[in-house]
Specification:
heterodimer; A: about 475 residues; alpha/beta; Aspartate Aminotransferase, domain 2; Aspartate Aminotransferase, domain 1; three-stranded antiparallel sheet; about 35% helix; globular; B: about 450 residues; 3 domains; seven-stranded mixed sheet; four-stranded antiparallel sheet; 13 helices
Amino acid sequence: MYYDKLIFEISTEGRKGYSLPKTEIERREVPDHLRRPDCPGLPEVSELDVVRHYTNVSFKNFGIEKGFYPLGSCTMKYNPKINQDMANLPEFAGLHPYQPLDTVQGMLHVYYETQRMLSEISGLDTFTLNPYAGAHGEHIGLMIIKAYHRSRGDEKRTKIIVPDSAHGTNPASATVTGFESVEVKSNADGTVNLEDLKSVLDDTVAGIMLTNPNTVGIFEKDILEIAKLVHQAGGLLYYDGANLNPLLGFARPGDMGFDIMHINLHKTFSTPHGGGGPGSGPVGVTKALVPFLPKPVVKKTSDGYSLDGETDLTIGQVSHFVGNIGVAMKAYAYMLTIGKDNITDIARFSTLNANYIKESLKDDFLLPIEGICKHEFVFDGLKDKSTGVTTLDVAKRLLDFDMHPPTVYFPLVVKESIMVEPPETESKQTIDKFIEVMKAIAKEAKEDPDKVKGAPYNTVVKRLDEALAARKPIVKYKDLLSE
Amino acid sequence: MHKYMPHTHDDVRAMLDRIGVEKLEDLFSEIPKTLVHKELDIPNSMSEIELREHFASLAKQNTPLIPFMGAGAYDHYTPSVIRHLIERQEFLTAYTPYQPEIAQGTLQYIFEYQSMICQLTGMDVSNASMYDGATATAEAMFMATGVRRSKKILISATVNPNIQEVVKTYALYRDIEVITVNEEDGQTSLDEVKALMDKDVAGLIVQNPNLYGITEDFTGFKDALDEHKGLFIMNHDPSLLAHLKTPASWGVDIAVGDAQTLGVPLSYGGPYIGYMATTTKLMRKMPGRICGVTKDQDGKRAFVLTLQAREQHIRREKANSNICSNQSLLALFVTIYMALMGKKGVYEAQQMSHDHAHYLHDKLLELPTFEPAFDKPFFKEFTLKTTLDVDKMNDVLKEHGYLGPLPQKRFDEAKADLVTFAVTEKRSKAQMDAFVDIVRGLS
């Protein structure tokens, strides 16, 4: 049965879900002029009420452990349980961030070794784990680019180049760092158009943001040439780590000429997405940019690990403490579980999975870019455009088969984009089932298009009226009561 | 074969055949040879047994101390229920709710979270969370300077210095000038606010309780800001809002803070969760995700991300924030905390923090080595002046398993004799008496 109650709607006056110790300490009152006169309207529920409520709420969600989750650019790989157990160890979870260094050496070891392994894997010199998420990493990376140019007295560099296929976060990050973003066109295969790049490169360019493989899953084979051109123009190269998975152990952004990058630990290094965070977006830099890293920096000395607060060139502080270190612990456990003996298999099997799906479905779905892809690829909707069935319809129909749809309508350069990323943790059986369902939907689109357009049918709610929500925003329980 | 990768030899063969290539390496042939990397300098894989042993040995190099310090991270009680619920795979392993039909669970708890944050702060609308309290404050600055089309903002000297520092870092690269409002007897100087405010200044950022633990009196601040259409931004500990006047009642336009105080474990500083709430008037200028109510085709109540025209994936370079994913699972964490504690529990728990903090305060003042630093009301954190060698005191406390008070000289050398203690409902009378006994023995 569909559970539709809000926690407020099961509240019963007088119930409680907590216990506190008795205290013999005298009660004091908050001064009248500072005291809240009323009581915040929080629910009154028992402990079992709470447990049952959120258990029922959870049933309305789809997670990786339920089924295939080929969400492009998101790397929805299995989130190992042991990582969670390690991150929960009380000797780590119970540490105050200002504890003396000699009482937190184990935690700092995790921080230092995680950044060291990320440096080794990506070919950059040093990482900071302080950034909280990929977008936060971009923001900080661009601050470093700006600080670098400013430190050289080169104030005229105000532009950041982003390809037209880039994620919306890239230009937004440029804006919040006080840059102007300049779009550069893609070739038909989604790679950077070198001529267009040359035409925008001048001494006002601070840097370029790229993913490689790019957002359509194609490796930028001209990357060394691109790096040369950008560097010759005095700019820096920023690598958006969203697509790092298929390069692990094969090729390193640092060796390609990138100066700075972020990695999403919640993508490439298996930490759970949590329904939209907490993630972690470590930023790595070349040796020349290390002095600009945000503080504090974890250092290894002869006396153990230390936290270094002051360097002349640091961009400053970007998080209250040292970032989502609890997330980094999971990535650390994952890296040790994978090891150097298995890391290249991540690249191999994620790429194998993607190419296998692409080749299996290209008769039914329009493949705009032929050839070998990396860990993901893009279809441009159904091959047969006469049915009127859109990418959105296909995605909604997939919901009926207990599979999470791929990313849709991104990148913007492909109109009816269906972006498929099947991580290395998925088996041939799971993928074959997906192929079978996708083919069945393509067939259904021909035979009974209205059926596909009416999907989903088996979900707890059907298609939603998103315009209504924006027109008349109801954003809290109190708004519902005054309905 | 690795436990996380299920591909058998036969699977690989069949898949390569379908693709039409000979071997796995053929899938990487376009990568220039000069880029193909040799062996990485990382350890070989560990089994689960070895991994556990490794973590156990690292755990021995950590010693969690019993905190008598806060400074942005507070040791509050965490009900067991929370961990069990947030680790349900349906919550833990889901992506951002882009397909609302199969993400009603995430969307519903975001809606409940927003509702509860509004109840605590008195504000009209909350977003789905920010990274931490410091970055939420910096984002509030972006929001205010964007709304007011201004490049200047005021920040009180009594805001936690780390938060000030994050705000200033964000501002520096966007050429926003952050002007410090001096303190007067441990509080934000209203006279200075009046003197510094003009039509070119976007607004004022304050914190309550402030870096000394003082609960400030903001009478007159709203009027001073209104005169120049300045926005009022307040970073407030949400756990104290069952007791203290809400940001809304002080006339705040943007309320932010760190919701770590709602039971989130210390975890060496993260993950925590920033919150942000604002007025209906400014709702469409707020960064981050917002969940709203709508109906499905059958008229059934449902939840959906809304007002997305504000966000980076639509506005791209015109967006005023680049935030995408935030700290969603922590939003669930504090939602469950607030549900369990409920109407009375948040009040009772923090009443206990309050009373115990005042007990410790009075006990310490009985010692000849301490005297009051300010004659101002405080809640769970308070600052004293001491004649003791602060580093030596904290070393001795550490040997006894305690994390001593925050030395204010960490942030300002001129405050060498000021120390700030924090007490939560978890500090018992026996612990505090033992703590005071150790301090009494010092001279």
